[in-house]
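Appendix C reproduces, verbatim, an entry submitted by the partner laboratory led by Prof. M.T., so that reviewers can inspect both the input and the predicted structure.
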Amino acid sequence: MTELKQKMSEMRREFHQIAEPGWLEFQTTFKIIQYLESLGYEVEFGKKIHSERMGLPSEETIKKYVDSLSLDTDYDPGEILQGYTGVVAILDTKREGPTTGIRLDIDANAIEETHDKEHRPNKENFRSKNSFAMHACGHDGHITIGLTLAKWLMNNKAKLKGKFKLIFQPAEEGVRGAKSMVYAGVVDHVDYLLGGHIGLGTKSGVLGLGTRDFLATSKIDVKFKGVSSHAGASPELGKNALLAAASCALNLHTLTQFGSGMARVNVGVLKAGTAKNIVPSQARMEIETRGSNEELNQMLMSKVNNVIKGSAKTFDVEYEIMQAGGAPAYDSHDDEFINLVYEYLKDEFKIKLAPSLGGSEDVTYMMNRVEENGGKSIHFIFGSDLKAAHHNNKFDFDEDTLPMAFKALKQTIKLLNK
């Protein structure tokens, strides 16, 4: 094991143990700040790097988790502990040049890590200490790549030009965090934006370059409110929220026939009722849509809204729709820029050009904003053989991916700094 891989593996395992879901990344944020400040970075955090946030946990959930922690910081953590998580680190070389942004996501998945004895984090004693969260998508690796790059940038400041912004973004799962940072202006003056992700169907040792097929997506929570009543003696006095939600769920799954592209809809959660003998007065649904482009996703969402409204009217219940997340598609693909990076990296890496994501990722908010402002963006896939699929509780990746990803970003920065 090389010294670089060993250090990166140790850091990754530190973050793996403190896995935290979106908007609850308190320990993660504090640890990132501590490391960056030790390197000499100017850091921004709290409300300064956020605007309106989507899909927040309840105040009760936030308070319960805060109360469970023993936190010791030399600054006021108040805003972070209100769910304003994440960090932006800035390095100004004081020499004229571009502003380069590097985006790293930091949240974990809201699942419990497997207790399988053969699972490496169990065998080597770095499993998540939180039973409600696990890094099952590689974001612990992304943090490590970003912090390793931060150290290299600071150590090579005298050889570089322009500015660098390391954006440690919260709440990527559920596509909630990037929009908040984009609308706060975090990437408004970025000339080049680099993003990337571990795994995603690309094998170890392969560098995916110029990722395509980012799907537009919308995430909504829906509440139906009816009237409870005795299910045997007076069911006619009730208004059944469960039936409204069930009818809604069935009808939603008929909406994805489009000739202009791919569309998806999924009802991931449906909870309703309180007892066998009571007409259910409450029902809650969590729904997502996806589309191969923004126009198609919006057409689908219009149909979804009509079905929700119609289901409520049919069963004479009230309804409320809340936006819980979302991300736009990305399809601009500057082939000239991608080819420039390819020519610079091709002798050092085994490259897969234009790999397909086939899913949604809210880095697209940042990529689109940078390009709207005249800049350029590129997304990598850092190939890694996985022990289980993303979001599975047995997920683990090949740690050889970490130094490869760091090197790919480092070399790209060298190109952009010429």
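The domain at 216-327 is CATH 3.30.70.360 (Alpha-Beta Plaits). Additional entries are available on request from the coordinating office.
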